[in-house]
Protein 1
Amino acid sequence: MSAADLTQLEFDQQHLWHPYTNVAKPGPTFVVKESEGVHITLDDGTRLIDAMSSWWCMMHGHRNPAITSAIHAQLDTLPHVMFGGLTHDPAIDLGRKLLEITPDSLTRIFYCDSGSVSVEVAMKMAMQYQHAIGQPERKEFATIRSGYHGDTWKAMSVCDPDTGMHHLFQGALSVQHFVSRPPVRINEGWSDDPAQNGLGELRAVLEAGQDKIAAFILEPVVQGTGGMYFYHPEYLNQARALCDELGILLIFDEIATGFGRTGALFATGFCTAQPDIICLGKGLTGGHISFACTMTNDRVAEGVGGGNPGIFMHGPTYMANPLACAAAKASLDLLTGQDWRGTVSGIAEQMQSELAPARELPNVADVRVLGAIGVIEMKHAVSADEAHARAHDMGVFLRPFGKNIYTMPPFITSPDQLSQITAGMLRLAQEL
């Protein structure tokens, strides 16, 4: 049968490669024809609540009128122009907004294409800074285990080399310095004992590699794809002091945690420390178009400029794409123009209550909620394919990962819709 004779779904299964799938056994796949608000509509007319915010980015819901209007208006005037030697109002207006809401010390903004690329930019920036200030031997990075920072080459090197998705690439990737994930959970009392809070191990690794390590990179407070693990923010404060002592830069990967998802505008807000570099993506445009940015302070930016070759060696073709900048500005205006804290707090309270019964199930290891993130951790791996098979019946699209059945619902999710999501999660915890 020729490609022209295949149905849409048959063509997809025979020719399109989806993320983290076996092309010979692609698993259940749904054809989406339309989306609006919290719903995606399939080709058979079924409407499913997108409990994943389409991989955590669609925080204002699908096809948000303010964001789509901004994109439409921009499309009629300036869809794209190179950012080399040129600039435009959407990039400048977005930059002003970012400076209003991000940590005060972060004053320089580098626009890029996606979250993974923002991590690449951050690592490149840290290494080039160290080279510029006369420490070219600092080419390596430290990070915590169970982390995830993206699928591009350098980003993969700071994902967990043993339990992460990229372990088979070990030997080809740069060898980095790993410490145990912070052992004190966010809801536990902080221990000042370095042997108990993880800072002793971190100091030992950073001191041993001091002459080689350019930066320490981690996801603040919440490890996402690495296990939906929530740890104590005091670890970040003390890591900041340790990095300062040893001349190591501190990078916060806030791609998943940014823009209110955790209950703070940025997870950085849980601590007093500010990073040297921050990576932002996902919710930046409300999920309507791919975009990300890497922000840094004057010290790093001017350090790079003061060295050889005197310029930052990166420049994506679609850097500062005007459509994406317009979408991002509209998304951030939407977020900050509402009581987002109250909204996220309400989602958290409801999930705490409605997911609590899962604690009594025999195969459940833990139930945890932080902001608009709800997790049922199982004692065994959970099949995403089997969860997908129940989506039609539940009216909810959930995509478990590893041992975790989780949701990051759009902020516009109503209480009734959220109850449908939590009921679906409880059903999966009982049946899978």
Protein 2
Amino acid sequence: MAPSAHAGVRNRPNTIMQPLSTACHGRCQGWKRTMIKAGFLPMIRRAAFALAVFVVPGVMAADADAPFNPPVLNLNAALSLQETLAALPDDATVFVGETHTRYDHHLVQLETLRFLHARTPNIAIGVEWFQTPFQTHLDDYLAGRTTEAEMLERTGYFDRWRFDYRLYRPVIEFARANRIPIVALNAPVELTRKIGEGGLAALTPEARASLPADYARGNAIYDARVRKAFNMHPMEGARFENFLEVMLTWDETMAATAAAHLAANPGRRMVIFAGSGHIAHRDGIPARLERRTGKRVSTVLVAGEHTAEPGIADFFVLSAPRELPPAGLLGAYLENAKDGVRVGALTEESGLGMAGIAKDDILLAIDGKPVSGFAAVKMHLLDKKPGDKIDVRYRHRNWLGSEKESTVMVMLGGESPPHLPQ
């Protein structure tokens, strides 16, 4: 088991949680990262993060003559995470936001899941991390019909989500061990890519029918946050209306998928884990789920990108950052090939390169275990750290076309450059 899986259970974060008022000041913190396409995708990513730092026009002017009187948390009297969860109704749907790269945020999610499951075992987990078309592959893994590597490969985790799997693995392992359903909430990237390029109108009738029919529009504060982010990172040819429809698609799809699961499973409660930008101020997923179910949900955010301001969430967890142990890395871009894993570009200090493995070589096995795809490589390296040594069997084709298989020892490197998959 990965260090993070053990740490997520044994080393729980020191947290306290304080309820916040429901008045909305129109601020929003970061939106999700996702993959749409080179071009429109980077703009969405940059603009999404920009949502974390602005105030809707008019708010500052309206408050200019008012006393500066922000809320104060009494840390000596603040409730703990478990005390707060214990006070929630047993049938409440609970949202817990995350900054995708923050380990302590995922520890808060895990602790919330453990506590709620102990109280109400009939619970499901809705997650942004997987996209709706791949639900059956997630179900197969949770039921023990496939391996973890097969699940990750078939759901496209490393292509569609990409964040360090060690952050998410403890929740998935807990769900599997306790037979808790995980519901893939997110819209498929193939559709959000097309919407980013041409709006909902660019979809075929069949594709449009796979998304929610009813998009709640006309929320001026929501639209203003999205427009502000869009304006901060202009891109030639991009249209705000398309950008807004991508954001709406994410939020409406996740809300509709969660609502459908709850409707199909009467009496079941749900805990939903998604990027904090989808949860802050309630007008992303939470309000859209409430619209469909007619029942109010509870929202939880964790300190980090956000400040504890009125209206941002029902509860705000004060958690200190924690770091995962450094991962052992090969130092190369990898891609699936017909009979193994192809080596792409190598980093300057790549362990593969130092061992004599070159671009376009095919990795066949690690420590004697075959690697049929990229996910299998990631699983073999999951518990490794920088400096660890592994045996890699690979195939090299020379310029004459002849092939040769060899096994070499590779020393793993440290943290990778941004956006390197390995």
Protein 3
Amino acid sequence: MFLAFFYKLKEVGVPVSPTAFLTLHRALANRLIATLDEFYTASRTILVKSERYFDLFDQVFAHHFQGAELPDAEGLELDEIARAMLEQWLADPKTMADALGMDESQLSKMTPEELIEYFKQRLKDQDGRHDGGSKWIGTGGTSPVGHSGFHPGGMRVGGVSRNKSAVKVAMERRYKDYSLSGPLTQAMVGEALKRLRNMVPAGPRDQVNVDESIYRTMKNGGEIEIAFDRRMKDRLKVILAIDNGGWSMDPYVSVVQTLFDYARAQFKEVRTFFFHNTIYDTIWEDPARYRKPMRMAELARLDPETRIIVVGDASMAPYELMSRDGSIYIQDRSGNPSIECLRMLAHTFPHSVWLNPVSASMWNYTRTIIMIRQIFPMFELSIDGLEKAVQHLMAA
């Protein structure tokens, strides 16, 4: 009966696993969950492994339990989930046996084909209607979960909702700022900062970590093992280049600046520069792009381990990117096309990315975005995109 709920979570992008799904059902079968409120807390705890998916989970939960069950999905592919369960069994048979509430030796006697059929049958048993019994999930009877029954601690599934407190909590959307999609906002800065924590200090491990040393020594049965960390003074250098020249970027400039202003504690040095549409021979330290220019030749003399983060929509007339004098500003017309400047920047600083506030689904419709993506790894200017960009920047 919860199979539609499980599939709906997977459909919207919540990475729920078959093992977690079976663990939830085992908790239900053991009568550890008696109310819809408890089911909300337990299912979110068991099925969702990261707070980034809390908002998606709440949306699916509210949709599924607000007075009526979701319509059955057409053509549910039980084979797919059964084969996923087989893969989980081959990787970790004990965990899968525990989730199914069975003896591991009993399952080990089955062939892979028999296991798949067994898993499919278990799934069908859970998904089918069950009336008047005392096991699994059903309606009537004394089953601890279902609706219209007589179990003193029963939990409603489907039917008419008489106590929507859990649904009400889910509908409050308390975790909207944890969402991965959509451009960064001021409200998301705190969550986005967590993604920058991967930019850890670099340098030699020459500082004793007392807590880790004690843990390792105890784990070794008293044999002393000293753990070392890198010194915090050896932090990364970051250059942030922001397109602040057009109305399309206006909503994001202050957010990005705020994000990196707060993140300065993570870095040895953060320098912010500005440009319009694309980078030519000069970028600017002042937002007005007038008083404090820096030439590309000067930038190229900096530490090549510096992390370069370019923020812009990468959308412009193709001639601005390709023409020798493509800039709309006379002072930027040096005879070098912008695309060559971008290539030089990416070549000089191997650890570089481009953050784009335009949805990734639209990138293939803009020629200049396609061209710039061939030079810089491009990520969406969102929490998800920021996390992927940081992981790329920190890759060896």
